[in-house]
Amino acid sequence: MNIGMTLTKFLLEEQRRLPGSKGNFTALFSDLVVAAKIISREVNRAGLIDILGAAGSKNVHGEEVQKLDEYANTTIIKTMEHGGHLSGMASEEMDEIIKVDPKYPRGKYLLLFDPLDGSSNIDVNISVGTIFSILRCNPECELTEKEFLKAGAEQVCAGYILYSSSTMFVYTTGHGVHGFTLDPNVGEFLLSHENIRIPDRGKIYSVNEGNSRHWLPGTSLYIEKLKNDEKNYTARYVGSLVADFHRNLLKGGVFLYPADKKSVSGKLRLLYEANPLAFIVEQAGGKASTGDKRILDIVPEKLHQRVPLIIGSKSDVEEAESFWKYQDA
Fold first, then answer.
1. pLDDT of 161-205, one tens digit each?
2. In Å, how far from its chain's centre is CA 289?
3. Which distant-in-sequence residues (6+ apart) come within 8 Å of 181 by Cβ?
């Protein structure tokens, strides 16, 4: 066991096991870790400074932008753009892709991120998080939006940073899922959860039942089945995707944000939320689906594409999928 090992050391050891690795990816991660520490600091003192509440503008999705959204978005861009490891970025908060300033060297990776998932909960001290995805690209080619429109199966890394009672950094590069907890006394992320495996079946379901009046028949039937199941399923819904996903990843269970009569294409964003979490859950032995299709097989058509999401323990997701044949009933 490597419990207590720093994230940097863990990455270096992982790098040494990969023939031909030049360390660029490890250096990119180091920049991302700095951004995570800065955001964590601001989240933890949000009630003490003028950073709570709405910023007075709306994002590309028509949602109210929170001050911490703006802060987290700017922090990630400014921290990541100068390292020479990225050719560009895409943020859930911005209409268009972000090209690396020509004064900085270009790298062979693209970063896609949701700077602060669940930010509407920050005013009431509920867990929030940053979700990220990394793709490869050719730094010699002109960067266009098309370079970002790749199936989730092509991700080289995905992860999230959970800002809560402690700050956790969870990621996968396709070789298992590992979690690190920030020790504020030493300022380092230390390995706390090595090779995370999600239970094959859980007893928790997470869904916004406030949307039940809009649900399609298959969703209603499945949730009703869980409520009456002799396995005694428990409803747990925080309303912050990272928090709900993290709990279910460790304890087992299923999270659902299905398509419904109100959101016929789903609500969550494929590139910034569904793809990275799907990559993580599959590496941990779980499953992610739209109800009838594997999330990681979807080829995006646009930067801010929405998608239905059922994610979590493999057997739970497969059981949910079995009810989707009733969606058009």
1. 999 889 999 999 999 999 999 998 989 999 999 999 999 999 999
2. 15
3. 166, 167, 168, 169, 189, 190, 192, 193
In the structure encoding, which two tokens stand for residue 259, read together? 């398509």
103-114: pLDDT as tens digits: 899 999 999 999
d(CA 32, CA 82): 12
Asked if 182 and 168 count as a contact pair (C-beta separation under 8 A), the reply is: yes
- Do 231 and 202 touch, CB atoms closer than 8 A? no
Question: Cβ(107)–Cβ(86) under 8 Å?
Answer: yes
Q: Indicate whether this model's pTM tops 0.90.
A: yes
Residue given tokens 């940073």 in the structure block: 161
- What would the two tokens of residue 325 be? 């044949």
132: left (phi over 0), alpha (psi -120 to 50) or beta: beta
Cα distance between residue 133 and residue 276, in whole Å: 5
Q: Could you tell me the two tokens for 274?
A: 């569904």
- Residue 286 contacts by C-beta under 8 Å, 6 or more apart in sequence? 198, 249, 311, 312, 313, 314, 317
Residue type, 146: K
Question: 276: part of which helix (H) or strand (E)?
Answer: helix 275-283
How big is the CA angle at 281 (ends 210 and 263), to the nearest 5 degrees?
30
38 within 8 A of 73, measured Cβ to Cβ: no
Helical (H) or strand (E) element with 7: helix 7-16
